[in-house]
Amino acid sequence: MSRAALLQMTSGIDPAANAETLVAAVAQAKAGGAAMLFTPEMSGLVDGNRERALPHYRPEGEDPVLAAVRDAAAKQGVWVHLGSLAVLREDGKLANRAFIIDDAGEIRARYDKMHLFDVDLPTGESWRESNSYTAGAGPVVVDTPLGKLGLAICYDLRFPDLFRTMSDAGATILAVPAAFTRPTGAAHWHVLLRARAIEAAAFAIAAAQTGEHQDGRATYGHSLAIDPWGDVLLDMGDAAGLGFAELDTARLDDVRTRVPVLRHRRAIPEATLA
């Protein structure tokens, strides 16, 4: 049995304030007996005003939020999945990048979000991630104290082939940090996460942004931990804060024995048009 901590945030337009929340959560996760803390997508900054946000974008090695979390992880001796930060690439564009940080503060893995969210919603909200971000090149699976962790971010959730690739590579846990909008969250968040966990016979951990943000947007919350059978272990509702979930490896073995989907997978050829 292993314990995971999930941080549900309402990140704002000040990276220093967001870093304080993250550092406090690392300490709280350690005090609560967690082996690893999971944080949401865009933990360091949520700001749709590009002109105002621009001065805060830094290369990975100069990002103060990343540095603060690495220091906190080393101080507390706990692993952290930093859900994502907007990181300035060498080509001048941004990456929506997740980090796995070990209990010595070292970066064990990075993942850049592969699927970018471009949409105009009936609410009047418009999201154009491709205007600012470059998509990642491929999936990542990393060893952690909780098991082999497959990395995804938010909109990636809608693309099951990514999760199949990660479970084929041995992932027993799927991490999906997010900043889901309220309409899409209410419609699809729970069902998609449960489906991904069931399809992969794996745990799913999804730390989320929540509430009314300083830049005017609103996010859905409901950070979730789901077991390989699709049962919800934790649903944090819409309040910001820290939650804990127990991951039982015996449950993983039981589900994969009862429904051995990983062994039954076959390569699927292109469809024949009748």
Walk me through this protein's architecture:
- This protein is an alpha/beta fold and 274 residues long.
- Helices cover 28% and strands 28% of the residues.
- The chain has a 6-stranded mixed β-sheet. It has a 6-stranded mixed β-sheet with strand order 8-9-10-11-14-15, covered by helices on one side. Strands 6-7 form a two-stranded antiparallel sheet.
- Helix 1 runs parallel beside helix 3.
Helices and strands in order:
Blueprint: E1 2-8, H1 15-31, E2 36-38, H2 50-53, H3 64-76, E3 79-88, E4 94-101, E5 107-112, E6 118-120, E7 126-128, E8 141-144, E9 147-151, H4 160-168, E10 173-175, H5 182-200, E11 203-206, E12 210-212, E13 218-220, E14 224-226, E15 232-235, E16 241-247, H6 249-258, H7 261-264
Parallel strand pairs: 1-2, 2-3, 9-10, 10-11
Antiparallel strand pairs: 1-16, 3-4, 4-5, 6-7, 8-9, 11-14, 12-13, 14-15
Helix pairs in contact: 1-3
* Helical amount: 25-40%
Average pLDDT level: 95
Structural class: alpha/beta
By DSSP, the count of extended strands is 16
